[in-house]
Structure to design on (911 residues):
């Protein structure tokens, strides 16, 4: 048979090509590699590929590499530490992490026989090596000459971080004894990373999976923003994010990875703990998650490093002359790899290596026990170190490390590699003794069952080594260190606020969104805090009338502006300007990314030691409803700053319809404990709230943040009334705005509440009631129902718990003292917002609101549809008076006709 007719099956031979000629090609490649090195060889192959393409040869598209380690043995750097010492330290941390969880559940199950406090031991068991190599050689704490590494720890691995902190002397036995037992506050350890609960320890909440990854990307970009604006040298800082392979399925995990490559964020390192298991089963039982992720990240432009096999495999791969082992490891699916973990060496020999005689012979020198203990790459410190060193040295792109591990590594029957691993939190005596033997824990046999915590003496070699490594890297990680810096914020008398406080003076109407833009622009020019402000806009600046920010302050871009903007033609002053030192973060159509930037900027005071002031304005419907989990993350992170819901209201944003009209953000805002939510109607109210927020957060250091709803309806803005206490009333949540008197004596005087743009309708109702029905009323601007409610609840609680003390009274009670109502509320929010204060209203309380789906039409039509306009407020007031016997109930039907209200119209709540 002719040579070129041979069908070759051996690795490296190609059907139809003379093997001798093919060998010459291979030798040429080896020669080029030897003479010119990998980089120039890569360029040569790229040129050959392009030439082949032009000749009509379509190259196969491959985003993945073979299922082996990215870094070959010959390029693996020498390990800089004492491997034996680090293994002993790591083993002790493993023990303490396990003991902490198991003891806590044993202790609390006495009171709660259904299961105790819970906890996780399998995630850290699988990732201990990944963390310890980083702790000993990479994680740098914030110090005088280093802004510090930002480490997003995998939430379920928190027991390992506590166990290490115990070894370092940061936590004591009492702390570990009270894992997940945090009442009273400060007495225990939080389940996961929670800065709100442990404000000196944790920096980033990560266990709401997917949020850590996206926040880490925008945090890395924010570090560049700070550097490029000349505010701080962050060039030494790396952002590390540790996440699970199952977590990758969260949309937020991969949703922004192209931003990281587009921005060349080589200060970002992701470590994906590929233990092949989600919460209930395999991540990709019928596939290969490492290969899938490699394709996704390489396609997105990331530097991808796979750490699949430990050093035990090196000799096997070195003798794999025909590539059969490489082929075999690539064809086994993850579900089967899970099986190998628990099936034993004999099964591995038969089912993995037994597929081919050559493979079978490859391991004939190994015992079944040795086969069973062949390490995966994520458990080999030398392989992990090589990957980390390559990652931090890489330039021009972010790096992802895909490290293959075993979930529950070392737990044996209690969960190693098993589907139950995620829920493992208990171990029997046999498993405890096995764990002690496997990791050589220096605890007496008789004491093992008690699971004592173990920390060597302070002068022991282990403790000396551990402390020396952290000292060399700047100190402890994680550690949250809020700055003591206090900013000089402008007073209300400052020119930043002056124009808006004065009102429009009959010169036409403006919206509160426009007022907000003017206030913000003034603050950005302020000499004291201007450079600290971080305006964040998710591609809606023109909608909000803020396009002037582009040319005035510049849009941040790490590349500057490489094109001439089309809207600069003709001398247009409001053109789209990108700049390397730009101040505006214009995030595109990406609310999740914008919230991640808000968190990065709003926590700079604790993570970087510098106060930054984020103002994030967004289409209100796409805030709490869309990224509520990230807002909760911001709260947990103790973020400072202002969230601004632009184009608010279910009827004010006319024409946009169901998906865009917001009437419920204030309900969700009320659920966030450290968020202050306001619904201002006038520019002067907005000024007072923003100025006081700046004072509280940045001059006095309170760890709170704000939500402000602003509207796009233009109307005359009055000057702030010169009334004593009005500023405090705005901040408290309500203040008296206007009164009308009746020609006749009234035993009941209606009190009308209005918020936001609907305050205009309430004022119009006040006029109708006076002119048509001779009824005098009071109108109140309610800027925050939630703040009024919180104050009243606090007073209620205090009075209940102090029965022998003189009762306190709430702001609401004091404000409405002497008023008997009825009380009528109308706003562009659903009724639940105003209903928060019902318990403390001293009379009949009628709430009008925008319950139901939004729809498109004019503002007046929509307000009639939702029954919140002036006429409906008027009728609700007369109806309430009739119920109190102060208005003729028989006349109400005629009133409906007079006001043009159709009693048989559709119910907006169900429409």
């Amino acid at each position: 048979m002719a040579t070129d007719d041979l069908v070759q099956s051996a690795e490296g031979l190609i059907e139809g090509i003379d093997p001798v000629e093919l060998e010459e090609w291979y030798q040429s490649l080896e020669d080029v590699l030897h003479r010119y090195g990998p980089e120039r060889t890569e360029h040569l192959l790229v040129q050959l590929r392009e030439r082949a393409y032009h000749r009509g040869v379509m190259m196969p598209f491959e985003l993945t590499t073979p299922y082996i380690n990215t870094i070959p043995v010959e390029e693996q750097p020498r390990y800089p530490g004492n491997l034996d010492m680090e293994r002993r330290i790591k083993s002790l941390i493993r023990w303490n992490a396990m003991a902490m969880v198991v003891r806590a559940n044993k202790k609390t199950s006495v009171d709660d026989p259904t299961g105790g406090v819970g906890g996780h031991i399998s995630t850290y068991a699988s990732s201990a090596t990944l963390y310890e190599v980083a702790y000993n050689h990479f994680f740098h704490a914030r110090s005088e000459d280093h802004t510090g590494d930002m480490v997003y720890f995998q939430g379920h691995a928190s027991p390992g971080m506590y166990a290490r902190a115990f070894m370092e002397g940061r936590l004591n036995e009492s702390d570990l004894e009270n894992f997940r037992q945090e009442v009273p506050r400060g007495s225990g350890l939080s389940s996961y990373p929670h800065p709100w609960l442990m404000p000196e320890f944790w920096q980033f909440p990560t266990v709401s999976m997917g949020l850590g990854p996206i926040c880490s990307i925008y945090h890395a970009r924010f570090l560049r923003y700070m550097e490029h604006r000349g505010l701080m040298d962050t060039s030494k800082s790396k952002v590390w994010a540790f996440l699970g392979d199952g977590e990758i399925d969260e949309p937020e995990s991969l949703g922004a990875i192209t931003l990281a490559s587009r921005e060349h964020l080589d200060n970002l390192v992701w470590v994906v703990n590929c233990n092949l298991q989600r919460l209930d089963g395999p991540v990709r039982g019928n596939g290969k998650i490492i290969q899938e992720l490699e394709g996704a990240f390489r396609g997105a432009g990331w530097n991808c490093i796979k750490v699949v096999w430990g050093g035990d495999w090196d000799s096997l791969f070195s003798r794999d002359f025909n590539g059969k082992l490489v082929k075999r490891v690539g064809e086994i699916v993850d579900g089967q790899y899970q099986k190998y973990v628990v099936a034993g060496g004999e099964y591995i020999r038969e089912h993995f290596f037994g597929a081919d005689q050559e493979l079978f012979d490859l391991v004939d020198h190994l015992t079944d026990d040795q086969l069973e203990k062949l390490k995966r790459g994520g458990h080999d410190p030398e392989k992990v170190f090589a990957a980390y060193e390559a990652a931090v040295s890489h330039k021009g792109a972010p790096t992802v490390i895909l490290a293959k591990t075993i979930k529950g590594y070392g737990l044996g029957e209690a969960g190693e590699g098993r589907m139950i691993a995620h829920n493992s939190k208990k171990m029997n005596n046999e498993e405890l003794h096995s764990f002690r033997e496997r990791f050589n824990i220096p605890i007496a046999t008789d004491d093992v069952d008690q699971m004592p915590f173990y920390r060597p003496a302070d002068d022991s070699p282990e403790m000396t080594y551990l402390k020396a490594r952290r000292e060399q890297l700047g100190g402890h990680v994680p550690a949250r260190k809020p700055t003591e810096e206090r900013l000089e914020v402008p007073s209300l008398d400052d020119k930043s606020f002056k124009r808006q406080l004065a009102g429009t003076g009959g010169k036409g109407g403006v919206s509160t969104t426009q007022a907000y833009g003017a206030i913000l622009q003034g603050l950005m020019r302020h000499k004291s805090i201007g450079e600290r402000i971080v305006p964040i806009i998710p591609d809606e600046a023109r909608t909000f009338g803020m396009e002037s920010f582009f040319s005035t302050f510049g849009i941040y871009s790490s590349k500057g502006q490489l094109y001439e903007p089309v809207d600069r033609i003709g001398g247009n002053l409001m053109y789209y300007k990108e700049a390397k030192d730009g101040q505006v973060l214009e995030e595109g159509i990406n609310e999740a990314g914008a919230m991640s930037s808000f968190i990065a900027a709003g926590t700079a005071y604790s993570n970087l030691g510098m106060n930054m002031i984020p103002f994030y304005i967004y289409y209100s419907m796409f805030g709490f409803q869309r990224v509520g989990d990230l807002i909760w993350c911001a709260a947990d992170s103790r973020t400072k700053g202002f969230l601004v819901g632009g184009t608010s209201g279910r009827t004010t944003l006319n024409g946009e319809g169901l998906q865009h009209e917001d009437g419920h953000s204030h309900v969700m805002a009320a659920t966030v404990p450290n968020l202050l939510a306001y619904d201002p109607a006038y520019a002067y109210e907005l000024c007072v709230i923003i100025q006081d927020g700046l004072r509280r957060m940045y001059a006095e250091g309170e760890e709170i943040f704000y939500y402000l709803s602003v509207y796009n309806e233009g109307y005359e803005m009055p000057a702030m009334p010169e009334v004593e206490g009005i500023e405090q009333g705005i901040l408290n949540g309500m203040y008296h705005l206007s009164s009308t008197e009746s020609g006749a004596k009234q035993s009941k005087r209606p009190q009308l509440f209005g918020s936001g743009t609907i305050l205009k309708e309430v004022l119009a109702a006040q006029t109708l009631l006076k002119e048509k029905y001779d009824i005098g009323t009071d109108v109140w601007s309610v800027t925050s129902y939630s703040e009024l409610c919180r104050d009243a609840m606090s007073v209620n609680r205090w009075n209940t718990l102090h029965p022998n003390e003189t009762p306190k009274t709430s702001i609401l009670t004091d404000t409405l003292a002497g008023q008997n109502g009825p009380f009528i509320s109308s706003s562009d929010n659903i009724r639940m917002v105003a209903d928060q204060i019902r318990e403390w209203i001293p009379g009949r309380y009628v709430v009008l609101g925008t319950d139901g789906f939004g729809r498109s039409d004019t503002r007046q039509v929509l307000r009639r549809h939702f029954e919140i306009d002036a006429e409906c407020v008027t009728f609700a007031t007369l109806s309430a008076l009739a119920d109190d016997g102060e208005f003729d109930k028989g006349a109400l039907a005629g009133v409906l006709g007079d006001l043009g209200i159709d009693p048989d119209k559709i119910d907006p709540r169900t429409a």
